[in-house]
Specification:
By secondary structure, the chain is mainly alpha-helical. The protein contains 13 helices and 2 strands. Strands 1-2 form a two-stranded antiparallel ribbon. Helix 3 packs antiparallel against helix 10.
Length: about 280
């Protein structure tokens, strides 16, 4: 009885829309008008669309690179902060976590203002240094790299805080015992600290992978999928399919496949590290 209101809210906002999306994926649904049962045609259309595979490829590259950078830098910052205390440690934590807690739209708009166009702050600094301006969003490779770095910048603070929480929970008695046995700093890190923070690192990796893989705001605001669809990630393609072309039946099929891909990635994450709480 006490949890019923919360469960009803979850059902209304999460479970029911999921099942309704699967239901819609079997119908011709253009401009929100049901046009009849089409069986697997929407899925066939998605699976034979080369643009979908290209978008998935870009999405996996951006997700893996941005998550890897976030986890690596988050680990480095967490290890650094763990050795410090007082106002310095607090300041580093606050600055590192700021990109995660501010509005995703605001943060992305800030980076777009800094990097985009001849009048951007980045190109203004280049002119002061006597260098030619660079149009980052007009070149495919530069646009993808910029998108990766902005998404990594947004999530470093989260991984830092999660890993730092795990480091703080490690008993110093274990570290002292290892040092008495002759372990150096590298062995303490690789044999004690890292194995004992496996759980927070796994949780961070799952959360950041799902966040980056399903992120639509940053690509839309930063590059809008350009240039020449070089940064047209799968969520942006799904958005355009729904709200630019109004192909809601096909978009529902793609959403269902996207949900399955998310579930598979989480499953392999857990199996890969033999996750235990």
């Amino acid at each position: 009885m006490l949890v019923a209101p919360a469960m009803l809210l979850i059902f209304a906002l999460l479970i029911w829309p999921l099942f309704y999306t699967v239901y819609c994926s079997f119908f011709k649904l253009d401009y929100l008008n049901f046009g009849g049962f089409v069986e697997w045609q929407n899925y066939t259309r998605i699976l034979t669309d080369k643009s979908v595979y290209a978008s998935f490829g870009v999405t996996f590259i951006v997700t893996l690179c941005s998550t890897g950078i976030s986890m690596l830098l988050g680990l480095v910052l967490a290890l650094w902060i763990d050795k410090r205390s007082g106002i310095m440690a607090f300041g580093i934590e606050m600055v590192g976590l700021l990109p995660w807690v501010i509005s995703m739209m605001v943060g992305t708009m800030l980076w777009r203002w800094v990097l985009n166009g001849d009048t951007s702050l980045f190109n203004h600094v280049l002119r002061i240094l006597g260098m030619e301006p660079i149009q980052l969003f007009n070149r495919k490779t530069e646009a993808v790299v910029t998108l990766i770095l902005v998404m990594a910048w947004r999530t470093i603070g989260y991984s830092m805080v999660m890993i730092l929480a795990g480091l703080k929970s490690i008993s110093e008695a274990l570290v002292e015992a290892a040092r008495v046995d002759g372990a150096n700093n590298w062995k303490v890190l690789t044999r004690i600290r890292l194995p004992l923070i496996k759980t927070p690192m796994l949780i961070s990796a799952i959360v950041l992978t799902m966040s980056n893989f399903n992120n639509n705001t940053v690509p839309m605001v930063l590059t809008s999928g350009g240039p020449s669809n070089a940064t047209n990630v799968i969520t942006l393609y799904l958005y355009k399919l729904s709200f630019d072309y109004y192909k809601f039946g096909t978009a529902s099929a793609l959403s269902t496949l996207l949900f399955a891909v998310n579930a598979i990635m989480i499953f392999f994450y857990i199996r890969m590290v033999k996750y235990d709480i």
